[in-house]
Design a protein that fits this description.
mainly beta, eight-stranded mixed β-sheet, 24 strands
Amino acid sequence: MTRSSKRAPLLLAMGLLPILATTACSAAGPDTTAAAQAAPAATSADQRPFTATEVSRFDQPWAMTFLPDGSLLVTEKRGKLQHLDLASGQKHEITGVPKVAYGGQGGFGDVILHPDFARNNVVYVSYAEEGTLDTRGAAVARATLALNADGSGALKDLKVIWRQTPKVSGQGHYGHRLAFGPDGKLWISSSERQKFDPAQDMSGNLGKIIRLNDDGSVPADNPFASQGGVAAQVWSLGHRNVLGIAFDANGKLWAQEMGPAGGDELNLIQRGANYGYPIVSNGDHYDGRSIPDHDTRPEFAAPKVTWNPVISPAGLMFYSGSLFPQWKGSAFIGGLSSTSLVRVAFDGENAREAERFNMGERIREVEQGPDGALWLLEDGSKARLLKLTPKA
């Protein structure tokens, strides 16, 4: 997933939207919101407080999660799930994964563990799947991970528990990031598939944050449960392309999303809130048309941070380790077009970009390891898995 050049509005005006449909667009656009800020200067390699060590390489990795034994599961966009033994460096492909609709931004997505994984070995995966008549949509499945002594293994009894509705044409903006909350519920980011209006349409679940029970059923206390149908799944609406969701130490859910031109966001997700897309945004349409800012429509929830120029956010996590005590409580976001690792600091429900580290490559995913190290996945083919540890 890339951001295109500043020629994008011209190209779109010339009718080449299908060509650009698999990309997010440029950083152009006015900076008219109090939430927007000048980005800190990116820290160069010799100024970083960490050492980045290459551990392994993957083909178009998208997400990763650590197992209780310290080994790592990594999804690859073409449709593979890899198991990496960090002690030996051995990598094994896990069989039994679902068939994915690979292309554009579509393919294999997230992987997370059930909160009681140590007992039940249940994992959750997200991916793009084919529909009829050249349509596609995201899906989430749960399965039992059966590992062998040599590190190989398989997903058993895989069952789809959620799907984007409706399936639509195109290969962009699936979202499908996963997280379990302190309440034991499964949270899913469902992006608007580059179709704009569905983010405000409660007859479908595109452009929404979804909250489910661990088996895919709908919690009775969801804000729109009384409406029934897919609306009952929805926790919040009015989202564009949410590529990171994570809970902070206080149990609050945050989400970052790729906005339109000049409109990347970090949002505090609140029950039943409407975040306004595509009615409002602090960015503009890629063809140059203006979108009213959030402050023109106070009924919509405004972002806590916006970026212009954009960072193209991918992956989101909150740091709780001890290796970097100065960062405890901070959030980290991978930057694609910004080729950076972005640290966000918090003061209650307020947030700001505090530091930006130039990594020299597009960063797709960021996670905290069991020992408190930061782990990054680069984007693309031959992408490196990096372990960040404090400099001596």
